[in-house]
Amino acid sequence: MLVSLPIAVLAVAPMGRLFLHAPASHLAFQQERQSIVVYVPEASFEQLMRVPEVEALSRAGGSALLAPGDPVGLIVHREVPGSEATPFPCSCSRLPKATFVRAPSAAPQKLGPELRRLVGLVAAREAMVFVVGTGRSAGMLRTGDELLPVVMAEGDPESLLGSQDPQRSLSSDSTRRPGVIIAEDVVVTLLGFLGRPASKGLAGSTIRVVDGSPPFELHERYLAMRRMTVPIQTAAGLYVTAVGLLALALLWLRRRLPGRFTRKGAWLVMSVPALAVGLLAAGHLPTLSYETVVPFVVAVTLAGTLAFAPLAKRDVLLPPAAIGWAVLAFFVVEAALGWTAALTPFLGGSELDGGRFYGLPNVFIGLLVGASLYAASRLPTTWGFVLIVGVALFAGLPFAGSNLGGAVTLFAAAGLWLAIRSRGRLDWKGVALAAGVVAVGTALILLSHEFLTSVPTHVTRFEETSGRSLSGVWHTFTDRLAVGWRLIVRNPFAVVPVLGVPATLYAVLRPSDPVRAAFAGRPAWRDAVLVTLLAGLVAYVANDSGPAALGLAFGLGLGGLLYGSLVQGT
């Protein structure tokens, strides 16, 4: 044994010297990972994917649309201290562990060869390569294209540009949408690959490659929606405004006009819920064009209103309740479909524009509030309360609406409904009751996001950051109010529902003779209108896009007031 030990040492020594004097690149190959991030300015998704080397990279990994954000600033200027974008073309013969290159354009004859050369310089066994768009060209601005391209691949550098696999797409828990990620996902994924921690305030999830074609079709639908959404939403807004003014005029002249005119005006007012549903459901159309979207919205509005007209023969307040149930049923179906219509809707913004990529859009919170109260108006008080609480849970649970602000609004509506219906008025005890319902309901939603899902949600991120302290909650609250104010500044028309809700509340609480006559003998309908408007105020302060969240609550609250007044005595 003692004789064999020196022999073993002599045998191993040359190998030890070989290892100790191995080139640095060899050690990097054995021990390190390397990353390359190439920034391409003013390139659309289609332009970048036309580069053969980028297309080849997407076969080894995947591609996606990058929702509004700036991964360049996050990576180079904040999350990776000391990093700078290397001039193009990269003149270095050896790459650092994290290499950042800013390409001059997406021209295939320039970007392709340089990308191939960069990948060839990688000395590590495993590499992660990103090609990311940054900034928008004049053409992208003209078409309203807010989405940037991103391609990512990870693995053996020798095989990254030679894969023959089908093209795939990228996704993350931040968006839950195949082919869509956010800027923070790029940063979190890159830092995780390099073994570096991300800052605590950085929202983002690790990118994963998923089966499915690159999001060419989704991008095409998004651009089609962006081209048409402003004209269509403007036309819808003008229609609702004209209907409201006409209803007010008919109410003023009702004693001088035949009853058929006021009845038609009432049905026009009650078309608002169906119009809102049509504007969202249009996102499911296989082709988005004026020839398909406009007839579809008109048909849904007409059918979704007049289909319930026969119920008025039994009771004039049956149609609004039936419309409320139909709207609730539509949202259940939409949730089962994964809220895919919200990617390209024609009311509010697309979920691809950032902020909320899944679940109940804020703009439809008011529609849920009004629909649930319309339906509850025909139920006993307790069962109406149960219904609204159920809708609140639907809005907030992680596998349904996943919208904390929407859930808070609907819990407030449930508490207000119970307080007003059971006590006949709203006093401080009723407000305390409503606050208790909100507190218990909100706690249930927070617990559900903590224990009923393993996937991070908007709510769990709030719990992990702002929700941990009173100062964080207050900061979130004030920030949401600031966002709402900025929405009004950018779009002055958004002030109409903000001012309209208090004005309509005054009309309910201090009714004129026609309104008083409409509410006489119909206290449940009066309370449904009142709670819809009060919940709209809660929606404004509970959501970051307050004017949008209360918009349809104003529409259905005012609509309920005018409908009841116009059908009175007809």
What does this structure look like?
The chain is an alpha/beta fold and 570 residues long. It folds into two domains: 32-218, no CATH class; 226-567, no CATH class. The chain is built from 23 helices and eight strands. It has helices at residues 4-20, 24-31, 45-49, 52-60, 71-79, 108-120, 138-143, 183-194, 216-253, 259-269, 272-281, 290-306, 318-336, 365-376, 381-396, 404-423, 428-451, 458-464, 470-490, 495-509, 513-519, 523-542, 546-567; strands at 33-41, 62-66, 98-102, 126-134, 148-155, 169-171, 180-181, 208-210. The strands form two sheets. Strands 3-1-4-5-2-7 form a six-stranded mixed beta sheet, with helices on both faces. It has a two-stranded antiparallel sheet with strand order 6-8. Helix 16 packs antiparallel against helix 17 (428-451). The termini are far apart.
Helices and strands in order:
Blueprint: H1 4-20, H2 24-31, E1 33-41, H3 45-49, H4 52-60, E2 62-66, H5 71-79, E3 98-102, H6 108-120, E4 126-134, H7 138-143, E5 148-155, E6 169-171, E7 180-181, H8 183-194, E8 208-210, H9 216-253, H10 259-269, H11 272-281, H12 290-306, H13 318-336, H14 365-376, H15 381-396, H16 404-423, H17 428-451, H18 458-464, H19 470-490, H20 495-509, H21 513-519, H22 523-542, H23 546-567
Parallel strand pairs: 1-3, 1-4, 2-7
Antiparallel strand pairs: 2-5, 4-5, 6-8
Helix pairs in contact: 5-8, 9-10, 9-23, 10-23, 11-12, 11-13, 13-14, 14-15, 14-16, 14-22, 14-23, 15-16, 16-17, 16-22, 20-22, 20-23, 21-23, 22-23
